[in-house]
């Protein structure tokens, strides 16, 4: 394989969606307050009271993993996770354990 083909394949691999979250009205309000620059939502009804977020997370960057964990907690309970990397789930579980130990 040529270097160009390898770079092309890696580019495609990086763009695969691995986080899918449905947002309710409260989570949409939180999203509007703050969201990572590369993320956008698509409204799923005409009243814009529900939306879906689809994005790629590079879970091999610890800073990005921490940031997305903080942000998902910031969105609150008005979300439904449809697809999430196991590394994010583990980070969320670690956070819950820390809170439970205080």
In terms of DSSP E residues, the strand content is: 15-25%
E-strand count: 4
* Mean pLDDT over the residues: 89
Helical fraction: 40-55%
User: How are the strands of the biggest sheet laid out side by side?
Assistant: 2-3-1-4
**Biggest β-sheet strands, sense, barrel:** 4 strands, antiparallel
Put simply, the count of helices is: 4
Proper CATH architecture:
2-Layer Sandwich
- What shape does the CA trace take? flat
Distance between the termini: 54 Å
CATH class: Alpha Beta
Radius of gyration: 16 Å
Q: N-to-C SSE series?
A: HEHEEHEH
The CATH topology label is Alpha-Beta Plaits
Structural class: alpha+beta
Number of domains: 1
Low-confidence stretches: none
Explain this structure.
The longest helix has 15 residues, at 86-100. Helix 3 (62-75) packs across helix 4 (86-100). This protein has one domain (14-100): Alpha-Beta Plaits. With 102 residues, it is an alpha+beta fold. The mean pLDDT is 89. It has 4 helices and 4 strands, in the order H-E-H-E-E-H-E-H. Helix content is 49%, strand content 18%. A 4-stranded antiparallel β-sheet has the order 2-3-1-4.
């Amino acid at each position: 394989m040529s270097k160009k083909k390898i770079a092309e394949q890696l580019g495609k691999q990086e763009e695969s969606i691995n986080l899918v979250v449905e947002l309710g009205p409260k989570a949409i309000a939180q999203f509007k307050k703050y969201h990572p620059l590369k993320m956008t939502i698509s409204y799923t009804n005409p009243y814009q009271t529900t939306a879906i977020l689809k994005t790629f997370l590079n879970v091999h960057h610890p800073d990005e993993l921490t940031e997305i964990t903080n942000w998902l907690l910031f969105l609150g309970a008005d979300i439904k996770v449809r697809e999430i990397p196991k590394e994010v789930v583990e980070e969320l579980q670690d956070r819950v354990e820390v809170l439970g130990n205080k």
